[in-house]
Amino acid sequence: MTDFAAGQASRRWPPQPSLWTVPPVLVLAILFFYPLALIVRQSLGDEGTISLQYFSEVFASREFHRGIFNTITIALGSTVGCLFLGFALSVTIAFVPFPGSRFAGRLIETFIALPTFLVTLAFTFIYGSAGILNESLMSLFGSDLPPVDFLYSKWGVMLAEITVYTPFVMRPLLASFSLIDHSQIEVASSLGARPARIVRQVIFPAALPALVAGGSLCLLLTVNEFGIVLFIGARDVITLPMMIYGKAIQEFDYVTACVVAVVNVVLSLGLYSFYRFIVAYFGGSRAGLV
Asked: How many Å apart are CA 143 and CA 150, to the nearest integer?
């Protein structure tokens, strides 16, 4: 009888594979889908009726136009900057021998672990109106106004985002460069190829999949960046996340905030789908390690 009961218990364990999906689905439903459903429902009206009136009103406003324009231009500018800087630093670290190159790579990667507000705080200390650079220049030239005034603008936001997100481009690049046979570079150099040609014809083709994957990830992250814009306090730089914050926290206009949040979610999901497509397309042997 005992053997029969043990046999029955062994048949019941492990449970059916479909049962394992219940806990994660419940967690997602409670922590993600339910709040998202509330936001979508609020964006469609709070009077018990479903209407797209609020969407049409928000889409017609100048503030929304400016917010989505700033979001896209800052994200694109920051991504391009991350690609250029990340590629230059990665090529230098991987192919230009100098003492401490490995340490330099590890040091740059530590920016991934740092909160974004620390970078913006450091930028404020250095480039702010009362920062080290402006204080030094004002005392040197006897000026009453800070001569360096780019921090509180789109350029300051993009510079901070480039500083924060460049390591996200460098990591896949350095992984791809580790797969390049250095004998190819030595042969090209021995045949008289200049460094620029070697980079263009040997290194860049191998780096292209990692560049596309890293750039797609940076674009996704910068579209949703909130902390950098908030802490820098850039004048007249309103992005979609900042617009959501302003409408919900400062103006208590929850309907408009929910409409903008839905737009931001749709934009983010589209970019994430594009990122996954890029990784899948360049995956495996075509991308090395992305």
From this structure: 17
Please say whether the beta carbons of 240 and 68 come within 8 A: yes
> CA-CA distance, 260 to 226, in Å (whole number)?
14
One-letter amino acid at 234 equals A
DSSP labels for 81-128?
A: HHHHHHHHHHHHHHHS--TTHHHHHHHHHGGGGS-HHHHHHHHHHHHS
| N residues, the chain | 290
- Is residue 103 within 8 Å of 111, Cβ to Cβ? no
Distance CA 100, CA 104 (A): 6
Residue type, 60: A
- Cα distance between residue 180 and residue 206, in whole Å: 8
What is the per-residue pLDDT across 245-275, written as a single tens digit (0 to 9) for each? Answer: 999 888 888 889 999 999 999 998 888 888 8
- Residue 268's nearest CA partner among 204, 224, 205 is 224
List, for residues 158-184, the tens digit of each pLDDT value.
999 999 999 999 888 888 888 877 777
DSSP state letter for 15: P
DSSP codes, 26-51: HHHIIIIIHHHHHHHHHHT-SSSS--
From residue 70, give the alpha-carbon distance in Å to each of 155, 243, 282.
Answer: 11, 11, 30
Angle between helices 154-177 and 116-127 (to 10 degrees): 120
pLDDT tens profile 37-86 = 888 888 887 666 777 888 888 999 999 999 999 999 999 999 999 999 99
Domains of the chain: 50-286 (1.10.3720.10)
Is-contact 39 261, C-beta < 8 A? Answer: yes
